[in-house]
Structure formats: structure tokens, C-alpha cells
Amino acid sequence: MNLPIVDMHCDLLSFLATVPGANAFAPDQIACAVPWLVKGNVRMQVMAIYTDVRPESTILASRQAAIFQRLWEDNSNSLAYAGPEFLENWEKQTQVGIIASVENAAGFGNENAGWNEIQSQFDTLLSQVGKFAYISLTHHTENRFGGGNYTDGIGLKDDGKRLLDYMAGKQIPIDLSHTSDLLAEGIFNHIDLQKLEIPVIASHSNFRFIWNHRRNLTDEFAKEIAHRGGIIGVNFLRAFLDTDVPERLFDHLLHGFAIGAEKSVCFGADFFYTGNFPDQSRIPFYFPLAENAGKYPSILDNLETDLDKNQSKDLAYGNALNFYRKLWS
Ligand SMILES: [Zn+2]
What we know:
Radius of gyration: 18 Å
Order of helices and strands: EHHEHEHEHEHEHEHEHHEHH
Helix content: 25-40%
Bound molecules: zinc ion
CATH topology: TIM Barrel
CATH architecture: Alpha-Beta Barrel
Number of strands: 9
CATH superfamily: Metal-dependent hydrolases
CATH class: Alpha Beta
Distance between the termini: 29 Å
Shape: globular
């Protein structure tokens, strides 16, 4: 089924910013290389500005924002900027639309940065990339804003609250994919308490009900995201699906429909550069049935008996497209 695809997360920018000889157009280098995106009929790809928590995190983030800008400007035959105009004329588009997000607010300021520095870096990055598809406060670890996936018991800190206040009303969703459970709870509470205008999403997360992993969403959080009109991008990494059963990918996708998140579920494959990853137990990172962005048509084919035509469309692009059209109109 060759539907257009929206994918909510890949790490092409950090690959281009950090790996010597990295080429966005080399399919043997990374599973979200542009030829794979074209093959999979990806119409909109979110590209994360990813940094871990370290002193030079803002420099690395700025480098990725510059790479993002050049990427679509220098390759306008295959790539386009997926801003509001691109989404308005969705049916006419032929290129791969790209849009940036921020994965780890350490990219706005390291642990010692003053608040003026953080705001100024936020504004500069935003003006460079046009729109943020979302912001994730943390990655796996803890930072000044809150606790990541692997930091149980660390929630939303004062700086995290301050950043949420600063994001509010700017049409930028907050992403729960890398929060500890306590941080997710803190984000929901702070948004409600302060009546902040911030949509909540999970850009690249699976369901803990299907595979018990701290990177996956509890049904409670998934339902809350759906209830608030957010979206949930299902992740293709073997570690978060089920390390032994490739077809579990379909169970995760269908679980979204089963729990009432049928207008929220979408793709968030999470393709990144695997060449320098220290943890050998993660290999292979992806099962062959979802090993690169060229696999979307066959993934949709596999769901043909479980989903009707409209549901397949919602999953492939409709839910994410609706979400951003509404947000940016
Ligand atoms: Zn991630």
C-alpha cells in the first residue's frame, strides 16, 4: 500500500553533525537516508536536533540546526521544508518534507547556562529551523529540566517548569518519549495547573502493555495523550518492540487503535546511525521487516486485514497531518 507517510522521528541531523564522512544520500550509511525516505514514500520526516547532556550541547545543537537549513535548501529537487504551507498543499507535494524537533533541552543550555542564554539559544534555534515539531525535555538521563527514561523518581524540575512556561502559546508540542514516568506526570500537572497552551505527544514510543520497557508508554499516559488530541509515533527499534518477535511491531500499532487512540497513532520509526553504538546486545537494532524507511509500504500491507482503508490512512499520515495542520493554522 503506497500511501504517503509522516514519520515523527529520525536522527539524521546528529549523524551528519558528528560522523566523519556522513552522507544523507548514502543508503548504506543510515536507515533514514534520503533514498530510503523516497522509496518508502515518506512525505514528511521529523528530524531531531539531538544532544546528550554535556557542556558543549548547545554548540552541537546549533550545528544541527545549520545542517537542517542547508539540507533542504541545497537539495530542493528531493527535499522541501515541511512548514504550514507545505502541509496546506499536501496533495500536490512530491518531495520529502522535512521539519526539525529538539530531542533534549540540553540543546538550549547546558547545566550551568544562565536563563538569558537559554532563552536566546531557544529563539535562535527556532528562527533557524522555522518550526519545532516538538521539544523533548530530556533523553535517557537526568538534566536541569527533569528526569529521563532511566532516572526513576526524578520528575519535573523548576527549570523544566520555566521552559514549559516559555514554550506555551508558541505552537510547540512537548514530547513524552524520553521522560521518566514522574516527569510525564509533572508535565501534565504543570500544564493543567498553569493552564498552558502546550499540546502533548509521544513522538517515538511504543506501549508498555505490549512490551514492558521503560521507554514505552503506560496505557494511562497513552490514553491521556489521545484524550488531549496529541499523537503517538510507534517506534521500530527491536529493543522497544519485543527483542525476539518481529511481528510485535503490528501488535504495538494495533494497540493504539484498541485503546481509543485511533486518531493519535502514527509512525515514529527512530532510525539512527548504528555504526558506533557501544551496547552490542542491541544488534540487530531493527528487524528486517522494519529495517529502513523503505519498508513503510510493506508494513501497511501487513496490516491490511486488521485495518480498514481509513484507518490505514490515519496511521500512515492522516493523524499526524491533522495534528500539525490544526496546530499551525
Ligand atoms: Zn529518542
